Amino acid sequence: MAPESTPKKEKKDKKRKSEAADLPVQPEAIPPAEGTASAEAVAMEVDGEKALKKQKKEKKEKRKSSAAGEAADDEDDKKGEFSVPLDAISPIASPLANKKLTKKLFKTTKKASKARQLKRGVKEVVKAIRKGEKGLLLLASNITPVDVISHLPLIAEEANGVEYVWVLSKEELGQAAGTKRATSCVLISTTPVKRAAPKDGSTPKGASAEDLADLKSSLEEIIEEVKKLESPAAIKY
């Protein structure tokens, strides 16, 4: 048999019930009517949260794509490496970039190609320098016969604002310049290219100010390294 409830227990139960009855009933939340200021405020708050989440997601995806792009570039650099025998290096190839600097040069060459600030081949390079364009001239040391480009260092020295440096491989230089063929020389120009406005009145296509600023920053850093280069005999490969 179940034990009978004591008077004390009955009193406690009654007290709890009366306290629960005295508690105020929370009104059920009613959404604001459409078109009112309250409804607009709620909508703006929700939209703001969505926009913030979207912005965070885009930043995360951008970081991932940037990291993936750098990894792909490094992989391309490894795949595109060419072995150049020492006897294939021209005796006039001075100053000659070392491996570390060569990688920087090729990455900057790719940036210049993307920004349309790159001149390829002897004819284009000579024409650009004579027009007064400034920048950095890259020469391939394994070009034969070397007479094809032997006059370019002198032209660069006589020009105002043009530095030059030699790299080992014409094949790698061609790849960095965005061509399928080997390239004897390229000029990374710091002079913005003037483009004719289209007939339909739209804005002419060209490099963005951000791309040009990035290219200029990279180029200035590399030129300082080029000026400090030692003689070819002191460079180890």
TrEMBL record:
<feature type="compositionally biased region" description="Basic residues">
    <location>
        <begin position="53"/>
        <end position="65"/>
    </location>
</feature>
<feature type="region of interest" description="Disordered">
    <location>
        <begin position="1"/>
        <end position="82"/>
    </location>
</feature>
<dbReference type="InterPro" id="IPR004038">
    <property type="entry name" value="Ribosomal_eL8/eL30/eS12/Gad45"/>
</dbReference>
<keyword id="KW-0694">RNA-binding</keyword>
<dbReference type="Pfam" id="PF01248">
    <property type="entry name" value="Ribosomal_L7Ae"/>
</dbReference>
<dbReference type="GO" id="GO:0003723">
    <property type="term" value="F:RNA binding"/>
</dbReference>
<keyword id="KW-0687">Ribonucleoprotein</keyword>
<protein>
    <recommendedName>
        <fullName>H/ACA ribonucleoprotein complex subunit 2</fullName>
    </recommendedName>
</protein>
<dbReference type="InterPro" id="IPR002415">
    <property type="entry name" value="H/ACA_rnp_Nhp2-like"/>
</dbReference>
<feature type="compositionally biased region" description="Basic and acidic residues">
    <location>
        <begin position="1"/>
        <end position="20"/>
    </location>
</feature>
<feature type="domain" description="Ribosomal protein eL8/eL30/eS12/Gadd45">
    <location>
        <begin position="104"/>
        <end position="189"/>
    </location>
</feature>
<dbReference type="InterPro" id="IPR029064">
    <property type="entry name" value="Ribosomal_eL30-like_sf"/>
</dbReference>
<comment type="function">
    <text>Required for ribosome biogenesis. Part of a complex which catalyzes pseudouridylation of rRNA. This involves the isomerization of uridine such that the ribose is subsequently attached to C5, instead of the normal N1. Pseudouridine ('psi') residues may serve to stabilize the conformation of rRNAs.</text>
</comment>
<comment type="function">
    <text>Common component of the spliceosome and rRNA processing machinery.</text>
</comment>
<dbReference type="GO" id="GO:0031429">
    <property type="term" value="C:box H/ACA snoRNP complex"/>
</dbReference>
<dbReference type="GO" id="GO:0031120">
    <property type="term" value="P:snRNA pseudouridine synthesis"/>
</dbReference>
<keyword id="KW-0539">Nucleus</keyword>
<comment type="similarity">
    <text>Belongs to the eukaryotic ribosomal protein eL8 family.</text>
</comment>
<dbReference type="InterPro" id="IPR018492">
    <property type="entry name" value="Ribosomal_eL8/Nhp2"/>
</dbReference>
<dbReference type="GO" id="GO:0000398">
    <property type="term" value="P:mRNA splicing, via spliceosome"/>
</dbReference>
